[in-house]
Amino acid sequence: MGSVGTVICKTTLVCAPLMAETVEQIMTDMYKAKVQGADLVEIRLDYIKNFQPRQDLETILKKKPLPVLIVYRDAHITAEWRGQALLLPKWEGGQYEGDEHTRLETLHTAKELGADYIDFELKVASNLMEELKMNCHSGSKVIVSCYVNGVTPLEEDLNRLVMSMQSTGADIIKLVINATNITEISRIFHLLSHCQVPLIAYSIGERGLISQILCPKFGGFLVYGSMEGNSVPGLPTLENLRQAYKVEDIDEDTKVFGLISKPVGHSKGPLLHNPTFRRVKYNAIYVPMFVDDLKDFFSVYSSPEFEFAGFSVGFPYKEAVVEFCDEVHPLAKAIGAVNTIIRRSSDGKWVGYNTDREASITAIEDALKHRGCTNGETSFDSPLAGKQFVLAGAGGAGRALAVGAKSRGARVVIFDIDFERAKTLAHEVSGEARPFEEVFNFHPEKGAILANATPLGMHPNTDRIPVAEVTLQDYRLVFDSVYTPRKTRLLKDAEAAGAIIVSGVEMFLRQAIGQLNLFTGKEAPEEFMRDIILAKF
Ligand SMILES: O=C1C[C@@](O)(C(=O)O)C[C@@H](O)[C@@H]1O
């Protein structure tokens, strides 16, 4: 798709919205935004207290270290699109309570004083355009903006809306939606690829994040990034745009990979995969994809026009995603869970893999070996052989652990809140399922291994552990597949009880190494990836 559209902008700009209450603070923030990598700033005049239009604009525009986009939002502004009230999203919401004439006069003054861009809402733009164009001796560009806060219009309706915005004679168009499903973002990608005028188009919120990060691939005019310490909900930070995603390096040929999960914001995948792609000189980007419905997601994004090249699959989709793969690697099939999908370049088919199994089991084995817990005569025997392996959670991650432990000769005991699910998995690994109610009274064999594959312990449930604390002393090793936080409460308690502990970070790193090999077809730089993990966690 990136290749078929009319790509207007060669380089997408990064813009920091500033909402300070004093002109002094705006000046300070402008310099900070520049240091943090912004190409321009959007200044919200309506946030300035005791605003003196001409005087304050002169101060701001005379000394600006970066190009400036001026916005002056009315507190009551709504626009009409097909009879539906269009309200502003919160961070874009206006503060100005005065009369409309003064507001528009102020925007004209900003233009006259040399603001680089001025934003007019669609509702007022049509009447103003003639006047603005006649008065075009200043170099300011006019942005005509519109915010759709209700249901995202269908593609034809969005096209019509963009055309009506275009017909105002705007230099640049800005359209903001509030997507309730990631599939709605595909409409933004279409618009960005095909619009004849420079376009700023994105959705706010967690489901909309990809519209912002991938905007350079589809030729968007600018992307917003919030400043450090000033983060705006639903916007990426300047730091992430510049350092993790390096949006300046994204072009229409950049391959898109993403993590399909819900929730997704906790993942450290983008911080690990993106620098690694650059390290191995692979033109790709890895983004969080907040997915509500796998069927909808694949029905829209399987289309080759979006050029999505592969996915990591996280909680809670590792088992359900199997049916959306055209082929599944035998190992993943045996596990019944997929955490990696790639689009095979020869035929465009989705092929599913599992890199969790080896990642988790080798992390546990290496920790045991490191502490001298070998088993059997030769170093080829797994230290897990013959051990009791107690597993909490029989979902996607639990399946990988159970099948892995069984392959190493361990005896698996499974707890899951869903007893049927525990029984099914136990049957597959010739293990034993126990009702969840028993988990807090369950006393393992001395020297057993405990693995948590439930989300307990992960934010926001950081205080919870999946077994009774008193039983922890019986375990030789405790593993937690949760990796945010690095040391969960389970691991802290287990360490205090004398067990060897293995953090989910180790599994996370190893599964990502396996994924990177599959994503790029190149050998993953393991030391480089390990160093990132050490620095970022
Ligand atoms: O379990 C995990 C973690 C993960 O979901 C993440 O949070 O980045 C990514 C998955 O590939 C992996 O199997």
Automatic annotation (TrEMBL):
GO biological process terms held by the UniProt record: chorismate biosynthetic process; shikimate metabolic process
SDH C-terminal domain span: 504-532
Molecular function (Gene Ontology), one example: shikimate 3-dehydrogenase (NADP+) activity
Source species of the chain: Quercus rubra
Segments forming a coiled coil: none
Protein name in UniProt: Shikimate dehydrogenase (NADP(+))
Superkingdom in the source lineage: Eukaryota
InterPro entries tied to this protein: Aldolase_TIM (IPR013785), Aminoacid_DH-like_N_sf (IPR046346), DHquinase_I (IPR001381), NAD(P)-bd_dom_sf (IPR036291), SDH_C (IPR041121), Shikimate_DH-bd_N (IPR013708), Shikimate_DH_fam (IPR022893)
HAMAP family: Shikimate_DH_AroE
Shikimate dehydrogenase substrate binding N-terminal domain ranges (all copies): 259-341
Record-linked Pfam families: DHquinase_I (PF01487), SDH_C (PF18317), Shikimate_dh_N (PF08501)
